[in-house]
Amino acid sequence: MRFEEILRRDLRNGLIDIPEEQHEQWLRNRLVQRERQVFEEEMRFSDGRWFRVTVRSTVSGSRVHMLVDITDLKTTQVALQEVISGAQAATWTVNLATGESDLNDRWIEMLGLDRQAVISLDCEGWRALVHPEDVDAAEAGFLQCADGTAAAFEVEYRLRHRLGHWIWVLGRGGVSDHHANGRPARISGVLLDISRQKQLEAELAMQSAAITATEEGITITDDAGTILYTNPAHAVMFGHDDPKSLTGQPWHSLYSPQVAAGLAAEAFPALRDQGLWTGQAVALRADGGTFEQELSLTEMLDGKIICINRDVTARNAIVRERLQIRDQIELAQRQEIINLLAAGLTHDLTNLLMIILHFSDPSLEKAGARLPQALKNIHATAGRAVSLLKPIRSLGTGQRETKEADLADLLDEAADILKLGASHTLKITVDLSDEPIIAQVDPLQLMQVLLNLGLNGRDALGDGEQEIALSLSRRDTIPKTADIEVGEIPEGPYALFKISDTGTGITPEVRDRLWEPHFTTKGHMGTGLGLPVIAEIVRETGGAIALETALGDGTTFYVAWPLTYPAVQERKYG
Predict the structure, then answer these.
(1) What average pLDDT does the chain have?
(2) N- or C-end of the chain: fewer Cβ atoms within 10 A?
(3) Are 159 and 169 in contact (CB under 8 A)?
(4) How far is 267 from 275, CA to CA, in rounded Å?
(5) What is the model's pTM?
(6) CA pair distance 342, 179, nearest whole angstrom
(7) Rounded to a whole number, what is the distance in angstroms from the first to the last CA of the chain?
């Protein structure tokens, strides 16, 4: 059989795996190749095997055909291609003799280039894509492989994308083929896009720099409580020069046994339940001294605990000093209330004492007055004097406590105090809710708020028939005509105190400075601390004060008072 007949038979029998519409073209190409001195091609048979066919002409004019089974080679090549594709690896090969390169599609796509435009890339073309700062480092390993001083290299550098930005790549390569004399003939390798990794590294470096520079102490412990890392601020805070000196130490070595036990009992259950905890503790310095520390603990999924802490010794001292000053101011301001009441109270007490003096006058006995009746009158009058003083006895004390109380009783008591020494032309009314309003309060603080507003209203009234109206109700809104001056309206229902007077109202100039410390319209009779103090009290309780006033129409203060007293959430140890 002629050679062409053999090929047609193999095609017809399906021995050669080529689509039928390509048979004639393949046959023509094969016959042309047969005329060459030597040619090679790879073909797949219908059973899936791959063969490399090599044909050589002999001196006598005959031809020698050799078939080599390369099925395993092809399988390996397919597996390698799948790995390259899955890893998104850009591959390249450079022919050192010609300087030409072979690039896969991923290499082209990674830089956003056109495959048709970039058929091959010489060294100069590649160098033009490399960031100027990275050229020397990027080609150093390649050149060492090219001159035979190295077998492989690895380097990170930047390549310019077609859109103008730079991408970071990791290049790995090595000698893949040699000449007969052993000199490198080809260098091949891969490029991996590591831009995201570099971005993360930059972010981590920035975060690390921030952690190192921050004044807050940061510590990380493992799930057993052993310190794995501390930043410089933490080390300095505890009196150590080198943060590494704390690595490997148990966390509880930084506290006294009692404080450590308290922290463990409080913090660890919260970490297990909620993943975080905040509080304060007294910590130990390396020299044996102590300092007040604020802590914030967070538990990670792997059991590690991140602790952020700060030295709050100075801050707490300032807070304690401010609280002490505030208590002194409140005491002074309560004294001012007593002073304001004293003038009117003196009048009432004087009248009562005059009655006592009259009934106890020895001359009455000579006039024949009956002594038993005089004693009864003296006793009754003295009782009235005692009851007159009863509502204000607690105002001069510094005792403070919270308890459950009926707010109506407190408002009634405030009204009784306002009546002491008041002009007979002043009418004081009280309007209470039909149902009791019970709340957890500091009675002394609430009384201070009510009396301040009531006494200010009493002082603002002129001569003639005047009125101060006090009321209490459970509300969830205040009138739209009132402006909030202090604090925020509590969420949900709250107690609303209303203190109104029929005075001339507050001028705009006075209203602008109403809550300013030491501003007063009472001259030497006032300190200007009343309203600023009660403003602070209302803010601390989570309430609000609103004001409605107009010249000639009087003034109304609204006090929105929460029905629950704010609780202290922060834990402190030591």
Answers:
(1) 82
(2) N
(3) yes
(4) 10
(5) 0.42
(6) 116
(7) 106
